[in-house]
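Sorry to interrupt, but I need a hand with the structure work. Go ahead and set the record down below:
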Amino acid sequence: MLDKFKLDNPEVDVPVALEQLRGSFNAQIGKEGATEEQVEKLARDVTDVLAKVEEHKKELRDALRTAPPPADDAKSVKLDRSAMVFAPGSDDKSDKDFGPAMRDLNNVHLSLLVAPVARLTDDAPTTKKIVRFRYLSDMLTLINMREHEVNPNYRGWETLPQASEYKALAKQFSGALSDATAHEGAEFVPTSILSGAIYDRIAINLQVANLFETFPMVAPVVKRGFRGSKAVSYFGGEQTSDTGTSYATASTINTDDQTFTASKQYCLALETEEWEQDAIVGANFVMDEMGVAMADKKEATILNSNLTTTFDAGTVEDEMYGLRDALVTYLAASGKSAVDMSGGMTAEALAEVWGAMGALGQVSDGAWICETNGLARLMVAKNSDGIPLWNALGAQGPAVTGSIGQVFGRPVIVSSHVPTTLNNSGVIPSSAGSKTAIYHVCCPAFKIGERLGVQVAYSDHYRFAYGQRTFRGISRWVFRNLLPAATNRIINGGFGIATY
C-alpha cells in the first residue's frame, strides 16, 4: 500500500499519507465496522509511514553536523541587551557541577551561548554570527578537553585552528555590549558548558516535551507560582443617597506555588575513530550522540517517571513527576477511574476522557498522546452519525516534531514511549501486559524547568579496557505538574487499548 504514497518530504507528505491510509481503510470496511485484522493492518501501515519521520530526523541531524559558514566581519553586531541572562552560579552542594562552571562565564558570554537567538537579535547578519560563534565554542570546548588528555605536546585552545575566528567574534560581541557589562574586554575562554546549539539536536527528537512551556532555572531549586482561585465580580446598585450604598466585599485571590528541583541527566558518548582524520567531524558526532540520547531519556521520563509512588513493575524511573504519575495519583486520591476502551475506541469514550476533566479539559489547552496502535484506532473512530473524528492537518502538519492530526480539535502527538505492556488499569504489571493507552493532557498544568547549558567532561578511564575514550554530558532539568495532581484532573486517559 505504501508504494502509492510520495514520502520524499515527511514534514509535508506524512500527514497526507496518513489521511490516504485512513480514506482507503474506510472504503474497504463494511457497514458493520472494521474487523480486528483490518485495524491491525492499518496499525502496521501507520508504523511504516511514521518510520519515514525517523529517517527524516536522521537527515536533519546530519544537516546539523554541517558547519555554518564563517560570518561576514563587515557587518556590525546588533544585540538586544534586555535579553541578557545572568550566570546562575550557585554554592548549593547539589549544584557542584554547574555552579563553578557557570561562575567561569560572565553574563554576556553565557547569554551568547544559551539564550534563545530570536531574543538576542532580529538582525539576520547578527544571527549568523551568533550561530557561528556557538558552533566554534562547542568545537573548541570538546577538542580542548580531548587534547589536554591525549596530546602531551598540546599548548592550549588558542593554538587550535578555530581559535582566531572565535576570538574575533567574541571581541565583536563584547564590544557591542561594552556599556552594558562590567566585563568589557574580558576574553571569552571556552569552558565546560556547551552552547544552546545542542538543544537544536535535542529538539529534533522531541514530541511530547514540545507541548509544555520551558522556563530557565537560575538555581537548582526554584518555585513557580499559580493562582488558586479567581476574583469574583458582583452587580451593585446606583448610589441614591449621601450615605451611599455598600458594594459587595472584595474577594480574596488565593495563590500558591510549586517547587521545581532540577535533576541530573547523564549521557555518555564514545569517541569516534574520525577524530584522527578530522577533529571537527568527531566533535559533531559527539554532539549528535548526546542530543539523541538526552532527547530519548527526556521523552521517556516525562511520560513514565514514577515519583509519587511506584506503580509500574520492573525497573522504572523515579526522578520526576511524570504524566502517568499525575494520572495514577489523581485516580488513587479521588477514587475515580479512567475511561475503559477495552471494548473499542468510540467518539463517546474519547469525549468522556476530556469531558471528565472539566475546565482543565478545554480544547485550547488539550493534547492527545498515544503510540501507533492508539493512532490507528483514532484515525478510524467515528461519531454516532458515522462521521470520522480524525482531522488531517495536511501539508501544514508539523509531522517531525509535533502533531500529525487532530481529534475534537486537539492535536495528536505520537510517541514510542507510551507503553504497550500495560494492563487494563493502565499500569505495567509484573507479567507484562499487552495493552496500551491514550492520554489527554492539560498542557499549561505542567512545566519544564531547564538549567542553562549542557556541561561536558572527558575521560580515558571509563572504557580503558576497550581502548576507548568517553565524553560525558550533564543536563539539569525537571518536569512536573504545576497544579496539585491529587486534587486536579490535569490528565485523563483511556485504558485497555489492544496492541498488535
